[in-house]
Amino acid sequence: MNSKQIIALSAFLATLAGCASQSTVRPESAAVPSNLGACATNFTTEGSFWTGTRYSTFEEFPKKTVSGAFDALLQSVATSGYQVNSSSKEAGMISASQTVTFGQGKTVPLNFVIKKSQPGVRVEVSFSTSGGVTGSADGAQKEFCKLLASVGHSANEVSPPTKAADDNASVAKKKAKKPAAQ
After folding, report:
1. How many CA atoms lie within 13 A of 122 on its CB side?
2. What is the pLDDT of residues 74-110, one digit of tens each?
3. What is the pLDDT of residue 3?
4. Residue 26 and residue 63: Cα distance in Å, rounded?
5. Predicted TM-score of the model (pTM)
6. Is the pLDDT confidence value at 42 over 90?
7. Quick one: pLDDT band at residue 181, thresholds 50, 70, 90?
8. d(CA 127, CA 53)
9. Is the model's pLDDT at 18 over the cut of 50?
10. Contacts for 38 with CB less than 8 Å, ≥ 6 apart
């Protein structure tokens, strides 16, 4: 090889390495399956093969409670083959992991955060790979949407106030305002 070829090869390799290590945040909406809804629309990837990749999404469930979403997710995560590492209904958090195929003992974390919103709840999920581990964005998106669908299909919902409940609340307030008989 002459010096021009070595310089050209070095420049090419430097460019390739620079492109591979750039961190990017990309919404994956270009190939959003219509049946996956908000989960797929909100899906993003960040990072690269060399630095590690973070996949994340969120979905709003206006008729669900934190407790109901937590119970549905915990059951779905456990039955989908993940190892549940920790969970806290009070904090609205579930942390799970899965062993990487051919990863020589490496695991990848899957984290859920359930937040109260008006109305209902917002459920966020993220999955991170370490540098040198690859994952499929399409596969992550489908898995996230499958797990989040368990919240949408759960029976636990915020019940709207009924007329009887409103009447009972009014009566209780009136009784509390009356001075005690002497």
Report:
1. 8
2. 999 999 989 999 999 999 999 999 887 665 677 788 9
3. 46
4. 29
5. 0.68
6. yes
7. low
8. 8
9. no
10. 59, 60
Is the Cα dihedral 106, 146, 87, 123 positive or negative? positive
Is-contact 109 128, C-beta < 8 A? yes
Cα 46–Cα 127–Cα 107 angle in degrees, nearest 5 = 120
State both tokens at 37.
């809804």
pLDDT tens by residue, 161-172:
545 445 555 545
Identify the DSSP state of 23. -
By residue count, the chain amounts to 182
**CB neighbour class for 40 (10 Å; exposed up to 12, middle 13-18, buried from 19):** buried
Nearest residue to 58 (alpha-carbon basis) of 112, 134, 95: 112
